Amino acid sequence: ITPESLDWLAADTAALSTLLHCLNGQYQYAGLAGELVQKADRASVAFNLGGDPVKAIHRPQTSLPQQIITSLRDLLAHEFRLNNPNG
């Protein structure tokens, strides 16, 4: 990045924040730029693996934390009931 570009980024805190979040892989905090990076990454991986990049972009993604929360809720609902006399 050129010094002029760095000066511009330093002057615009929102742009700098977005760039740093993207570089750190924290796309959920990067707004639209993070969304674009994720879609481009999915399309690139699909293309490299011989899949259809268009389908990869439009397919809904579930994050790992969301999958863990869903699994824990299922366990609490069906396996480990709270406030159960046998629990």
TrEMBL record:
Name listed for the protein in its UniProt record: Relaxase
Residues annotated as domain Uncharacterised: 1-86
Superkingdom of source: Bacteria
Pfam entry (one): TraI_2
